[in-house]
Amino acid sequence: MSLDSITLYLMATLVAALLGAMLLFFGRQERNPALKWWGIAYLLGAASVALWTIAGNALGDMLSLAVNAVGFVACGMVWNAARVFHGRKPNVPGLLLGAVGWIAAVTSLDPHAAALRMTIGAAIVAIYAALTATELWSERRKALQRRWPAVAVPVLHGFVLMLPIVLGDMLRSSDEQFSSSIWVTVFSIELVLYAVGTVFVIFMLVSERMVTAHKNAASMDPLTGMLNRRGFAEACARVIEREAEAGRPVTALIFDIDHFKGINDRFGHPAGDEILKLFATIVVNNLRISDLSGRIGGEEFAALLPCSLEEAVLVAERVREAFETSGIVVEEGPVDTTVSIGVAGGPAGTELEVLLAAADTALYQAKRSGRNRVETAEELPLSLENWRRKTAGLPPPKSRPVVA
Questions:
Q1: Distance in angstroms (rounded) separating the CA atoms of residues 207 and 213
Q2: Are residues 215 and 282 in the same domain?
């Protein structure tokens, strides 16, 4: 059983056109400009190859030149789609340069220099393929084994878009043995698989981007840009495990801005939000790159430092002093900015909940002792029940006295 290569090419272009329409549709639905670029590139490429396959001999010289130029524009759009996907501006001159170069070269060549025209066309497509692969490679954010399809496929893209143009005349030549060879049949099938495979890679990249965005949104505090409670706990778990393997201690800090409700009541919630953002900046600026910090409540922040209790107390004092001397002044007058801090340290492998429970106890001691101070926990708690109930907003057990 033999397969007609022309029919397979037409099927490949039909598949590419359908996939291009799908990419364009999803690009509009999701408001993703990169998907729109990829979709239009697919549609242009499919139209170019289809016209060349069906009516290549019937086209005049100028129309044939224009059809090939559209194919090169499609290659340039694939490259620009990769640029747009990674937040870069489209390179319009570069997009058109391949088509312009092709037209200029062909019009200046001997009409009978078919082999040279094929070589020039192959070089243009290969350059666009290399640019696309380079764009994706330079923006890699995952391990190579996860990202290699996104880099490998653009390289194959050059061959897949190049060969229909190169073989256009050959497929309509008088050499029936070549046009019916198994190699051409295999290549025709490969073109169909490529069209589907490329879209799979595109959606893999888009899906990866969306998952990362949702994950970041779920773990970040939108006001301060710090980790929220969930993100802070997940990040701390990894740090504690790493430090436990090395046998190093860890220390937790809890910060609570003093009289924050009064600030909101006196100056308004917009001023309160600015205070929160200011304090977040002060915390980040006074921590090391290896330290973690996050906003775990309204005006409550926390940090995890892979260091001893003594070192953490010094960091806490720096934060307290920096916030106290920040000198915030609004229309209603100066704002008193002080913070109370509880610090608790533990040996390697101490759970985050245990550290936070002890730091929370030290924080309340700082509040009772006059605020705007740093207190350290005397010991780690034996039971986390009261602390877990407090963080969940539940009252303490009735069998236990409530601490005023």
A1: 10
A2: no
